[in-house]
Design brief:
Layout lengths: L1 H25 L1 H15 L3 H8 L8 E3 L4 E3 L32 H4 L2 H4 L8 H4 L17 H4 L14 H12 L7 E2 L2 E2 L9 H4 L2 H9 L1 H4 L12 H12 L50 H7 L2 H4 L1 E2 L2 E2 L15 H9 L1 H4 L12 H11 L4
Antiparallel strand pairs: 1-2, 3-4, 5-6
Helix pairs in contact: 2-3, 8-12, 10-12, 13-17, 15-17
Bound molecules: heme C (HEC) (5 copies).
Length: about 375
């Protein structure tokens, strides 16, 4: 009996080892080689050329002991601090500001972006695999993480709008009739003081649309909230974290008052660009629509066949109802198809939109 167990676990670890090795082989070495080649092709000095020639393909990780983090995002995102890569395709593009004050070797990336910081494939690192609760936080959702080290005094107004709005909505709807936050409020529902460490954004968002779809016996009422209200409430709740997730080390806490003229980083143009020499060497990532349907969180709210959530309509035969163009419009911006609806903006990139639209088109 125990002998078979040993044999079995040996086989299992070999299989898993091979799977992990396979994933390594497919992805990050390709980005690294492309980066070193591009530096060489675009370099102005011989020392830059030499630097590029001497680089080895390897896992890049920041071990940030003070934050209990091991951050590997730069294994693929190699050019964040290289000012010459503003026109390169992702994952090799220069970062839009903020890294001078939050240097990657001290902060890593996931403190601000979320994601699965140990992941070494795109889908795992970005939290886009089945059962993931570590999705990248995109667009306004990123504001939630700023509060780990900042307060409204040290954050510029452009970085606080969503959270402040969320607090107002919480007060207007008197959520503290039933919930406590930091010792204040009622007891009918769970204490929300640490809810941001317990629930991810998608669960929280979906629960506002329909509490009973997430928890059959819930007595929480459905509120008359708009898509933006739900988003802002969700972002505010994400800032409420337990002591393990909060940043407590003084070296990481911001103290200086904010510059009121600071601007939120411009969203970069999406998609591939061939403006740089060698940009065509960067491998393009292929998304699989069916996997992404689960990984991007659609399944939290929608059923296909027997499995999935019941927050939104079932989609088993959705291609009988809409054409592919409508799917694309919906996935780019749900408000375009359902102006008064509640489906969230998932901020998928264009390649992901196309892949999911392909998959939905097969559901006849
Ligand atoms: C295995 C390589 C890899 C790793 C590791 C990785 N990324 Fe990415 N990242 C990519 C690729 C490839 C893209 C471009 C996606 C595309 O073109 O569809 C990207 C794009 C992004 C974007 C732009 C948003 C988007 O959807 O296009 C953000 C933000 C990002 N990554 C953050 C992170 C963070 C934070 C981490 C660590 C938790 C991380 N990445 C780890 C490969 C990686
Ligand atoms: C201090 C917080 C912070 C840190 C640390 C940080 N970022 Fe960002 N990053 C941002 C903000 C804010 C944006 C603007 C994103 C937006 O509005 O969608 C951004 C934008 C990006 C984008 C472009 C996304 C897009 O849609 O245009 C990528 C890719 C990215 N960051 C990757 C990284 C990686 C990789 C690291 C680690 C080296 C990192 N970031 C570290 C805050 C941060
Ligand atoms: C892990 C902690 C941490 C996180 C997370 C963090 N910051 Fe900071 N931030 C700092 C520290 C430390 C400073 C240094 C200034 C100081 O000591 O007051 C700083 C400085 C700044 C500054 C002033 C310098 C500059 O670059 O203009 C801005 C603006 C800023 N942060 C914005 C943000 C935003 C926006 C986010 C969320 C996307 C964010 N920070 C997330 C710790 C953090
Ligand atoms: C009439 C009482 C009541 C009111 C008012 C109410 N809730 Fe709830 N809430 C509950 C109950 C009961 C639960 C537990 C069952 C469930 O998960 O739905 C709950 C659960 C939650 C959860 C999930 C917590 C967790 O960790 O599982 C969140 C988040 C939440 N409520 C937020 C809010 C917000 C924000 C408001 C105001 C818009 C609000 N609630 C108003 C009763 C209420
Ligand atoms: C947080 C819950 C939620 C998530 C996540 C979500 N949706 Fe939705 N979806 C809804 C709701 C609610 C509706 C109904 C329209 C509205 O209120 O906006 C809807 C409507 C739809 C419709 C139209 C259905 C019909 O019968 O008219 C499609 C198609 C759809 N969603 C696809 C997706 C896909 C694909 C994803 C993932 C990329 C996704 N949804 C993620 C909640 C969600």
């Amino acid at each position: 009996m125990s002998k078979w167990l040993v044999v079995f676990s040996l086989i299992l670890s070999v299989v898993m080892g091979l799977t992990i090795w396979d994933a390594y082989r497919q992805e990050f070495p390709g980005y690294q080689k492309a980066y070193f080649n591009m530096v060489e092709l675009n370099s102005q000095t011989t020392s830059q050329q030499e630097w590029a020639r001497n680089q080895r393909v390897e896992l890049k990780q920041q071990n940030i002991g003070e934050l209990r983090r091991l951050d590997r995002c730069q294994t693929c995102h190699l050019a964040v601090e290289n000012p010459g890569f503003t026109n390169a395709p992702e994952p090799l593009r220069t970062h839009p500001s903020l890294l001078d004050s939050h240097p990657p070797e001290k902060f890593g990336c996931a403190v601000c972006h979320g994601g699965n910081e140990r992941g070494t494939t795109t889908s795992i690192a970005h939290g886009e695999t089945e059962g993931q609760n570590k999705r990248l936080l995109k667009d306004e959702y990123i504001q939630a993480t700023c509060y780990a080290c900042h307060t409204e005094k040290t954050l510029p107004p452009q970085a606080t709008g969503a959270v402040i709005q969320g607090k107002i909505i919480l007060n207007v709807n008197m959520c503290l009739r039933c919930h406590q936050i930091n010792g204040e409020g009622g007891n009918e529902g769970p204490d929300l003081s640490e809810v941001g460490s317990r629930r991810d954004w998608m669960w929280t968002y979906a629960h506002f649309i329909n509490p009973q779809a997430m928890n059959l016996v819930s007595t929480m009422p459905r509120f008359q909230l708009s898509r933006d209200d739900i988003k802002h409430l969700t972002i505010f709740l994400l800032t409420l974290q337990n002591n393990r997730d909060k940043v407590t080390d003084n070296r990481f806490i911001a103290h200086k008052s904010a510059d009121p003229n600071w601007r939120w980083p411009e969203k970069q143009a999406g998609g591939q660009t061939n403006a740089m020499k060698g940009a065509n060497l960067v491998p393009t990532i292929e998304y699989e629509g069916k996997e992404l349907f689960t990984g991007a969180g659609c399944k939290t709210c929608h059923t296909i066949g027997q499995s999935g959530g019941e927050v939104g309509p079932a989609l088993s035969y959705i291609a009988r109802k809409y054409d592919r163009d409508t799917f694309v419009r919906l996935l780019r911006n749900p408000a375009d198809v359902f102006p008064q609806g509640l489906m969230p903006q998932l901020n998928l990139n264009e390649k992901q939109v196309q892949a999911v639209a392909d998959y939905l088109s097969t559901l006849k």
